[in-house]
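re: ur question from yesterday

yeah so i grabbed the chain u mentioned. its 297 aa long if i counted rite. heres the sequnce exactly as i have it in my notes:
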Amino acid sequence: MSVMIKNKIKQTLLLFSFLLVSCEGEEKTIYVDDYLYGCTDVNACNYDSSANIDDDSCFYADENYDCNGICIYLDECGNCEGEFIESINLFGQCYNISTTTSLDLNNQEITVFPDLISQLVNLRSLNLAFNEIVEIPESIGNLVNLEKLILSSNEITTLPNSIGSLINLDTLYLLFNSIDTLPENIGNLTNLSLLDLEWNQISILPDEIVNLNHLKTLNIGNNEIVSLPDSIGKFVHLEKLFFENNNISSLPPSICDIPASCYVVATGNDLCEKYRYSCIDWGFNNMQWGQQDCEDD
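ran it thru and got these structure tokens back, copy pasting raw so excuse formatting
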């Protein structure tokens, strides 16, 4: 082979060096005479400090992540900024949205219902008793899997309409608040077995309350209720009925349709003898019946 041909081959090899890729996928710098090709952007993951000509090979980390795919902006619960939130922070404690099924925040001096709670969609039990909460937000309706809700001893005046969305509720404690009215759609809570509304300021019960036909315990004592629903007999599973210390002056005949074994407390009302229906075993109520002296019709 002539010297001229050999020189041409050598020049060609120097001019067209190949990009070599290692088995780990790392790109090698292209050497062409005195030029070093590679990524020259210092912000790139594959920045090559020895390269002096950029070859458009630079690649970069995703936003909020480093080049190894690790998030560099985490909040106090380990959530990556800008990404799907996996946990929420309530009063310095982190709760996983997917796995948290019970939340006890009683006696924490809470004045505002934490709206973040509504993200705990798999919650089964929520206890916010003995706080200073005034208002329950509509967002509570998101907790559709809730079975037990305790809101006793707060300063709640009304319930949101969304309370009717909690169709899996079995137990609802609302005693010792300042509730004066109940939303009509409370009748949607057909799985309730216990409803405690004692020591509030309720004067009228919505007719829809009789739709709660799975109730075993109904406590509406120490309110300002003037009458019981005419169709109260629909509570065919009642075991305990407390309506003492209200302003009730008469009882509907359908009260005889509740189970004969139901334990009833009716003291401290304006009832007279004719409403002491023999179908009910009034127990100690016989000694503390109302003082009203009404005449027969």
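noticed a couple things. Confidence is low (pLDDT under 50) at residues 1-25. also Residues 3-54 form one domain.
anyway ttyl
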